[in-house]
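Summary for the steering committee. The consortium agreed at its last meeting that each partner would contribute one worked example illustrating the joint modelling workflow. Our contribution is presented below. We chose a case with several input lines so that the handling of multiple components could be demonstrated. No manual editing was applied between input and output; the record is shown as generated.
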Amino acid sequence: MSEPERAATPENHQIVPRKDLDFQFDQVPKYWFGGDPFKTRFFDAMSMLFPEGEKFFIECVRDYRDQVSDPVMQEHIRDFIFQEGQHGMVHTRFNDRLKKQGIEVDAITQKNKEILAAYRRRTPKWFTLSLTTGGEHMTAIMAHNFLHRPEIFAEADHRMRAMYYWHAIEEIEHKAVAFDVLQKIAGANYFQRIAGLLWETFLFPFHVFLVMRHMLQVDGQSSWKTWIKGFWWLYGPGGLYMKLLPHYLTFYLPGFHPWRFGRMDAMRHWLDVYDKDGDPIAAGDTVARTFS
Amino acid sequence: MGMNDATVPFITLPNWIKAAGYCGFNINPIFSRYGVEADLLHLEDARIHVSTLNQLMAACVDAANTTGRGHHFPFILGETFTFEYLPEMETYINTSSSLRDAAKVLTWVHELISPFVDIQLEEDARSARMVLVYPPIGGLNDGSMANLPYTSESFFATLLKFTRMLVGQNTAIRLLRFRHPPPSYAHLYEEFFQVPVAFNQERDVMELDQELLDRPLLGAYPDLHQQAELLVQQRLARQPLWHGTAAQLHRLYQTNDALLAQTLEHIADRLNMHPRTLQRHLSQEGTSFGELQTEARLRAAVDALQHRRENLESLSERLGFSDRRSFTRAFKRWTGVSPSQYRHSLR
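What follows is the complete predicted structure of the assembly.
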């Protein structure tokens, strides 16, 4: 199975700042992913790491902002920061709900913040930008796959699906920003480019599992059976991570550019519906219906 | 762009009006005299020439003196300062879980409000120091902001106010150090700050107990704090870029340590400029390549001494000093202590 390949940045590409989105979190059930604690907490754990992660990405791109003379790239950076800021705020709102379920949101966020601050202090700027670029690649491949493989979110609550679809759309819109800054402004070579992604490939899932362990313990669901079944869902044949693998690997191709890979049709569909009445839930429902 | 053209943000305009009222005079005629246009609709974009800002300050000091209320204007300006038009910054501060956490605002203040002052946090086992640094960037290094006592007076008034608000009125602020000699109104200092004061010092520094930095604060409110920070980040992204060659060079050094040891020719090439052009631009902005390079090297040195274990030989070589002796000399001129003393004080 190979990824479809395309030429370059789409013409007249725009990154659109959207705000004031309502996903009705108060009506979402606790185990919103098919009633399954492992699957739900997998996404919840990522959600907990997002706000600090997004702040980190913003700062790492902003390091280079003043060296950018191209006005188009400047605008892309500004919109990238706006979108990441919105994601952070929406996820913070969702994470508030987790707090009410007894999850130690504040303590975990604080720990995450300290780890990321240490990277900012102790590693060179090109490396933190490389981490950002790697992180953006991971979110972009999740985004493309979530939108085009409706079976992934088939069991999920449709409001949560809407939130992840919205997040996915915006991740795709700005997927090349950090990459372009790393290549063109920081002048990174091949090894500097892949260093961040390699590092995160091992550390990011590890952090997610650590957070999940805490969550499942709070839930009283942390049995061996849950974990084994869950890992099978992620790493088994046809598992979530296995579905992402081909697209993941494209990053290591020499001459890779984010716009060379990834289907775009579901995204256009989402934009058509969203642009008509500004309802992200309706847009998500339509995409899920159309592509199933 | 010559150095007299340098402008800085003037989002603090409402604070000036408030402070003038508190001191008992009307600031309207003073604004008119210096051609300051008060326009709340475009406050975020308002800018003012550095020279005008200095004249304004001097005029307000005089006006406050003649009212008979006995207030020193910079003290009041600093003390009554709030982030009125930057509400998320105020929220960020008030929801901080520690003073260290709140101190992140200092870098944003530098970017959004006062490019002419950069407040840096230094610490060792016993004391923490908030140091006012006057970066020679964007043509502002004619010293006009750095040499007046008014800038440090008002900044310390604000820093003290927020520190006390967060950690309590009886905060153990140890000492305020000022670079300038005692002014004619020196007797007002201790009365106003309620802290021991020293003049004729190497740097402008506020010293406090190190343990205060991590003392948990009552107002901690992590999710609001997080959202406020994201809003600040969005605001920073809308900020106009620093213009000028000096700013460009400064940023280049900040993102790439390895360039610190490079020659003028190499750097000019990196900026797509002829070396002569680079030198001409920098001199028009009132600075020079050597000055900016030294400043960047010393900042990198302070950072490395704080956070890395690198030995001094390799550090001085990496930063491009000809040998360890010249590094030590330059560092001592800048901070008042030698690199090894500095590192030792952090242990």
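Chain A has one domain: 32-290. The mean pLDDT of chain A is 92.
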